Every structure is written in C-alpha cells, then in structure tokens.
Amino acid sequence: MQTTHKLRIFIPELVTGVVILTVFSWVNMASSATRSDLDRAQEYQIKALFLYNFANFVEWPRDAFSDQSSPLKMCLYGAVPFGEFLDIVNGVQVRDRTLQVIRTTDYAKIQSGCHILFVGIDHHTELDAFFRELNHLFVLSIGNTDDFARKGGVVNILRTSDQQQFEINLNKAIENGLLISSDLLSLARIINDR
Length: 194
Description:
This protein is α/β, with parallel strands linked by helices.
C-alpha cells in the first residue's frame, strides 16, 4: 500500500514526459527494428525520463541562477546515446523556469555552468579529476556507472537484471546546495558518502 502511494505521487509528474517520449519512440521505432533495438530504445527512453523527472523533484536555490528568467540548464556531456529523447523536452517549463538541454563534448561549455549534468560513459575514466576540477555548487551530477555516486556524483542510474533504479548521494546533494524531494528520496537507494 505504501509503495502504491509513493508511485501515485511520482506518476503525475511523469505524464508529460512519458507522452512526449513515447510518441517520439513510436515514430522512430517503426518498421524493421529488431528486439534488441527496441529494448535498447526503451532503456534510453527510461534514462531520459529519469533525467527529465529529476528536474521536477530537485530544488535549486535562487543563487543558482543569475536572474528570474534564467533557464534550468541540463547538460549532456560526452557520449549520451539517449540525448535525442531529451531534445524533445528542450524549452518546456519546469516549475517557473524553461528547461534548456545542452548536448556537448566540449568541456568549456559545461564549465560555464549547468544545473543538471549527465556525464557520458566516455568520460567515466576521468571522474576523479573531473570532480576535482569542476565547480559543483548547485549541480545535480548524474551518471550510470558503478560507483559514480561514491566518486563525487549525486545520482547514479543503475541497471538491475530487469529494471532501471537509481541511488542518491544525499551528503553530496546537500553539499552542492540542492534540496531533493522526499518523494524522490523514497524511491532511491541512499548513499551518505562525501
């Protein structure tokens, strides 16, 4: 019963993203796609949906933005195969801000500031240096590799045998000045490493 309540809270926020991402995936997966192609596309869609919804369940302080009209920047750094699913939500409203999706392989473009930062798999070998050099104040950093959250990231999306799950480094989120909704925390595995 408690799980159903949690999901009911989480699901309304997902509806817009699900509709947008589902329509896109139907258009792109028509005709002769193999089963593994469909599975991969579904996995990418789920990861994109996670990122989109993290934007709805995390609060950034006013200091994270230069002014009231500043966008909420979601940066996809490096090889992010599900980036096209997030291009669809570029420009949508997330609370009182416009979501701006930035896809780049140029480190200088993320160094100038991101609110949500997904680090592509091609940069995971550089994580230690990456987290030392980048200012992470007000940054929700997200990855999908073993120990991402323990190495300095805030959220790690994990693939179990039959589903996608995520873990949150709560101490790192607090250190970065982020307030994460209790609804989101109730669905995550919590890590308290610094």
